[in-house]
Amino acid sequence: MKINEVPQDDVPYFSEGIKKGNYALDDQGKYVMVPSKGWDVDEFINSLAFNEYEAKVEETRKAVLEGKKSPLAYYMELRQMIPEFLGKTAGIATFRVKRHLRPEIFAKLKEPVLDSYAKALSITREELKTVPHNSQER
Amino acid sequence: MSTEITAGGKPFVHHHSAHCESGVTSALFRDKGVEISEAMIFGIGSGIFFGHLPFVKWVGLPISTFRSQPGAVFRKAAKRLGGEFVTKRFRNPRKGMDELKRVLKAGQIVGLTTNIYWLSYFPNRFRFQFNGHNIIALHEIKNGFRVSDPVLDHPVDCLTEDIERARFAHGPLEPHGFMYYPKEIPRNPDLRTACIKGLKDSCNMMLRIPLPIFGIRGIRFLAKRIIKSPETLGFNEACRQLANIVRMQEEVGTGGAGFRFMYAAFLQEAAELFGSDDLARLSQEMTAIGDVWREFAVVSARIVKQRGQAQDNFSKAGGLMLVCAGREEALFRELNIVVRKLKA
């Protein structure tokens, strides 16, 4: 790859100003570091994965509003975690975390348990009790 | 490039790097007065690799890696250059943070292994649960730390809370607050011996691991799976997996084409160091292979985007990967012979 071949595509929404370092050859055939503004291919591939994740979060949010899952499930999805790692972070056994994903069991949780979840997920206890009514909030 | 002052009053020059681990390691060496580039560290630490792990799932997708396991580049490069490092892991996050503050106060910059999801200075789209990102803490500021993240082009501020979460995150490859800083680094490390060791190790890793999922055999294995994937997995799932491979190849911190360009840069530097024309030629060949990898990324993206409408199909993408495998095999076989002629 030569310097002028390093992609400099405009994808501001994707890169948010972060420039990626690419190695490329200069005129003398020497390798130099060239910051790249972004690349369409990269942006497209990454957005696939990101959209998949967002869709999953949104699906869970709706399930919570319908009363099929507990808000804990939503925040777990939002933080890209699975019960095993959420349990480890919060200091709660995995099988209990899985139970707490059911709304009727989640509703009966005591405050200390909620607090450890809130801390693990980096949100407040109040936030943990509900999910946002509109999509996308971080 | 921008300069910062550490707590010890020493200037620290931030270099934009392609890969986090080699970037951090080279910055720690430079801080001790040893001028060494990122590519050099990457080559000496034998960072280049290939592996496809179909049975290890990450968000439901198999892992393909273009580099050796996280932590190996630092470990190997430090050892081969004769640097002595202090490395620490902690059970107690409080102790881990106190130790970090203590070392920073003493004027020493510290390398940290972190979880990229909790580093809030990244845009949301780059944030995912991955426990192998390396950064350098420069000094303490109010409510946080000044941080030099090698994949960014300038140092940033990061909250103490974020750093603590990132260092003590759970999941695969838990960092356990891993921190490292140089204790003693030789003034003039023996670059030539270190390079030879790194080159030999890379050849072995690419050619001689007796498992079909690593090295050159791993590339062939994956290429054949890609060609068959529309039949075995169905078109949609095949696209998803193909996109994931490209993501691993071009995602933040590979320097382009799954580290192949960075390795070419290393071969070029090594060629100058040894005055070897063979290495210079191999560097050019590596660049050419990198270009084929890039083409693979472009073709794959087109397949996924156009849903197989155009003439691009999975056999073409897999075919490009087989080309890479063939050329890389020839390159590493030749390198294996060339490296034995080099004099330390």
Describe this structure as you would to a colleague.
Chain A has 138 residues and is mostly helical. Chain A folds into two domains: 3-38, no CATH class; 51-129, 434 Repressor (Amino-terminal Domain) (Orthogonal Bundle). Chain A contains eight helices and two strands; from the N terminus they run αββααααααα. Chain A has helices spanning 12-15, 40-65, 71-78, 83-90, 94-100, 103-106, 111-121, 125-129; strands at 20-25, 31-36. Chain A has a two-stranded antiparallel ribbon with strand order 1-2. The mean pLDDT of chain A is 85. Chain B has 344 residues and is an alpha+beta fold. Chain B is built from eleven helices and ten strands. Chain B folds into two domains: 2-35 and 84-184, Cathepsin B, Chain A (Alpha-Beta Complex), CATH 3.90.70; 191-341, no CATH class. The radius of gyration of chain B is 21 Å and the shape is globular. Helix content of chain B is 51%, strand content 17%. In chain B, helix 2 (38-44) packs across helix 9 (260-274), helix 7 (215-233) packs antiparallel against helix 11 (314-341) and helix 8 (235-250) runs antiparallel to helix 10 (277-306). In chain B, the strands form three sheets. A six-stranded antiparallel sheet of chain B has the order 5-10-6-7-8-9, with helices on both faces. In chain B, strands 1-2 form a two-stranded antiparallel ribbon. A two-stranded antiparallel ribbon of chain B has the order 3-4. In chain B, strand 8 (144-148) and strand 9 (156-159) form a beta hairpin. Chains A and B meet through strand 1, strand 2, helix 2 and helix 4 of A and helix 8, helix 9 and helix 10 of B.
Q: Features of this protein?
A:
heterodimer; A: 138 residues; mainly alpha; 434 Repressor (Amino-terminal Domain); two-stranded antiparallel sheet; 8 helices; 2 strands; B: 344 residues; alpha+beta; Cathepsin B, Chain A; 2 domains; six-stranded antiparallel beta sheet; 11 helices; globular
